[in-house]
Design goal:
CATH architecture of the largest domain: Sandwich
Helix content: 40-55%
Distance between the termini: 15 Å
Structural class: alpha+beta
Number of helices: 12
CATH class of the largest domain: Mainly Beta
CATH superfamily of the largest domain: Jelly Rolls
Shape: globular
Largest sheet: 5 strands, antiparallel
Order of helices and strands: HHHEHHEEEEEEHEEHHHEEHHEEH
Strand order of the largest sheet: 1-2-9-4-7
Length: 285
């Protein structure tokens, strides 16, 4: 109870944050949360329809794999072994790369572009679990536990991918266990982040959830600028809405309010996140 009060008092500087847990879970998850609408593209067709093999000369696999955070500390021989096993694919904007409940037969590393990991409600409502960019990876869970895919992955923009099949992945792991440890560490980080997201949905109002998204993006991608951190390409308002379970209109109101109060400065896809904004969010954590 004291913890909830502290969240409300601190984040109230951003907006009033009195919260009803049942209201937020109902608004974000909604009734029938376990009945997920499958995308119209059949799982078996996903690779052929969404992905096309690149025709130009192969990219430098070793260089690309070094851009992946979890692989950066791996020995050179481990990276070299991975590099010779991957294959290249291209996904057009809007195409389904991975379908929920589909067979998990490959792990993907994003060499270029952006994808979103999503679930679909019965009415077609989209819930965005995460947005991934160059250097991120996805699809590892199905390779490890042999269960169907747990979500859909859709290309937000034209994206170039490195794929690693299950057999090649497992062969690599038997001789290079350091890769397995790196992947497990990243999965642990993602699980902790998921716990934080669930807590945010239960304890914070919409303005505070928008603030957390902007803070996280600034810390991950922001570059030092005059008076704060500059995000050069922010998610769309619809993408932010999908991440926190609200409407685009509500996100727009929150961003406009923060801008009016001098906490953010927006120009096109760029956002200058003021130090004062970051401090207020940290004080509420």
């Amino acid at each position: 109870m004291l913890q909830e009060r502290r969240h409300g008092e601190a984040l109230g500087q951003l907006h009033g944050l009195a919260v009803d847990r049942r209201t937020h879970y109902g608004a974000v998850i909604g009734p029938g949360r376990d009945r997920v609408k499958r995308p119209c593209l059949a799982a078996g067709d996903a690779r052929d329809s969404a992905l096309t093999r690149l025709e130009r000369p192969p990219l430098d696999n070793t260089h690309l794999l070094r851009q992946v955070t979890i692989f950066q500390a791996l020995p050179q021989d481990t990276i070299a072994d991975l590099a010779k096993r991957v294959w290249h694919k291209q996904a057009d904007a809007g195409s389904v790369i991975v379908s929920q409940e589909g067979a998990g037969d490959a792990l993907f590393v994003i060499a270029k572009g952006k994808v979103k990991v999503v679930l679909y409600g019965e009415t077609g409502r989209e819930i965005i679990l995460s947005i991934l960019g160059a250097g991120d990876f996805f699809g590892e869970m199905a390779l490890l536990d042999r269960q169907p895919r747990s979500a859909n992955v859709v290309a937000v923009e034209s994206s170039e991918l490195l794929g690693l099949d299950r057999e090649a992945f497992q062969t690599h792991l038997t001789s290079h266990p350091s890769t397995a440890m790196a992947i497990l560490a990243e999965m642990s980080r993602r699980l902790r982040h998921a716990d934080e997201v669930i807590g945010n949905l239960a304890l914070l109002d919409v303005y505070a959830r928008v603030a957390r998204i902007i803070r996280d993006l600034a810390q991950k991608e922001g570059e030092p600028a005059d008076g704060g951190l500059l995000i050069k390409e922010r998610p769309t308002q619809q993408e932010i809405a999908g991440l926190i379970g609200t409407s685009r209109e509500t996100v727009s109101r929150a961003l406009n309010d923060f801008t009016r109060r001098g906490l953010l400065q927006m120009q096109g896809k760029k956002i200058l996140v003021r130090w004062g904004f970051l401090q207020k969010v940290e004080d509420a954590a």
